[in-house]
Structure prediction request, 598 residues.
Amino acid sequence: DSACPLVDIDDVKGKTYDYVIVGGGISGLVTANRLSEDRDKTVLIIERGYFDDKPEAILPYYAKGVDESVMMRPRSAPVARLNNQTFGVAVAAVVGGGSVVNGMNYMRGSKADYDNWESLGNSGWGWQNLFPYLRKSTTFFPPSPQTVTKFNVTWDPAVFDHGPLSVNIDDLLFPDLLSVWSAWRVNRPDVPKPLDSSASIGPGVYWQANTIDPREGVRATARRKYYDPICARRKNLVIVTGQTGREILFRGLRATGVEIVSRGDGSVYQVFARKEVILAAGAIMTPQLLQASGIGPKSVLTAAGIRVKKDMASVGANFQDHPTAYMSFNLSNLSFPNPTTLDNNATYNATAWAQYALNRTGPIATGRGPAAAFLSLTHITSASTAQSISTSLLAQNAADYLPPIYADPKLLRGFIAQRAILASRFTSNTMSIAGFPMSPSGASPAILFKSLSRGTVTLNLTHPFALPVVQYNTFQNPIDLKVMLAMVRHSRNFWKLPELAKFSPVEVSPGAQYVSDEALTEALSKGGLVPSLAHPSGTCALMPEELGGCVDEKLRVYGVKGLRVVDASIMPLVPGSGLQATMYGIGERAGEMIREGD
Ligand SMILES: Cc1cc2nc3c(=O)[nH]c(=O)nc-3n(C[C@H](O)[C@H](O)[C@H](O)COP(=O)(O)OP(=O)(O)OC[C@H]3O[C@@H](n4cnc5c(N)ncnc54)[C@H](O)[C@@H]3O)c2cc1C
Prediction:
């Protein structure tokens, strides 16, 4: 299926295409697929990475780790409130982008997450408008009837379609999952009927799908599902690999093409866009490319010696991710098999690989986490605490807890608009603020979905074409820490439930000895807490320009012509979920919108 002709760079140099897309990750490949449905239009994708056919890119088993050979890992700037640690920033560089290396969890945000986008002044970007595209991208594969019955797995078939991306719920569910699952549902009359998280219902305890094709037992990637099946037939779609788009070319303020540097020999050449240049390089690299091309904060561009084409503070601001406390517990008396059996039991391991070789099923064809609790602030604290957090948030002088770029009045106005929406959601039980993936192994991450702190992505001032400077600014806003501490305590209390006593859970990280706010904060800030779950977003936000937006409702970059952004940079507020489901939906929508000349 991947017998697609590899295009030589010499065939592309100096040529003109209708659309030039920078980045062949999720959004780039989905957009390209839909654009090239019109055979009269030519589409070129420029991708920094290469096609990767290693087992790591194909077997679901390998999602337990990340194949570093296809990653760029810019080192973040020190994070002041995490003991000045620096962190490797997860940026995929491979055809298929994040979909080739990610954890394969397929989850959509809740309705509220997308409605928040619309409330920021982005008409047509609420759940109702986005849902058809989320749905359109997917085909759902349930587990076997036996598994469905034994675990009472539930989902709503109406939220899936017959789209290119196969998503499944694993057939292999570990027996102890039943205990953990029912413990999450104890004392939770307010949590809605469990479904699959793709139903976007809001806070609750849900099954969650994986981007796996169970018919072949392989990871379902943007490449495998949106590129391989069409590449041989669509002569109007071309991808060049190992090529980095380093500067957008302009005639006046109209984008006319891209300057490219070849990873192989460093040669530099140009390609041209008759209609549009489309950025799909992801939330870390797109703002870098915009800034390197003269679109970004004047202060940064001037300091880097770049001529300002459009002074825009929003490029690289509003950076959000999901800080995560990797809590863990030692569990005893686990049933057989459990999530650790594959690594600990040689016989089971050998049988699993044999089963995979025979018919592509079993543990090697299985995803990582079939279920998670998505909780609101009122769930993890109480209605009155949530109210007081919301009130104290609104009472803050916003600029006190934001990076210096927010001296820009539009950016500050935009943040204050975001804050008003989040503060009201904090008390409403419509939006998940914390995620707790569920595994009967003792691994118990606590994911903060709704940071109020904002990071930045900025050019390396002395080497503008090098990897950018990533400032997470985790916990700059003290409310984030307050919520994270509440989440850690919530998780501790969870593992003390009588329903889980048979496992005799013992907290290993951060460690039960850390009790006070101060002790817990110190322990977390020295280790176990990371600023990112590889969900960078927001760095060229879809918002009105007077609120510090970067792209308009048609994803066009403000102030210039012929230039759009379609990747995770556009999310004005990060959803309470992994990002890939939303990125497939945005790619679908962008492709249709651009094709129809909107
Ligand atoms: C390790 C990891 C685990 C994750 N786990 C999950 C998960 O379990 N569930 C979930 O929902 N989400 C997960 N995600 C997030 C999800 O995969 C991303 O949000 C999603 O891929 C973003 O899509 P995108 O189109 O914005 O960017 P990407 O998919 O990252 O695509 C960007 C592409 O642009 C290319 N590129 C960058 N710069 C240039 C340039 N200058 N020139 C040419 N090409 C360029 C890159 O090589 C890449 O292929 C994970 C991500 C990672 C990295």
Notes: The two ends are 33 Å apart (CA to CA). Residues 22-28, 46-49, 66, 90, 92-94, 97-99, 101-105, 244-245, 280-282, 285, 289, 534-535, 567-568, 578-581, 583 surround flavin-adenine dinucleotide (CB under 6 Å). The chain has a mean pLDDT of 95. The first strand starts at residue 16 and ends at 22.
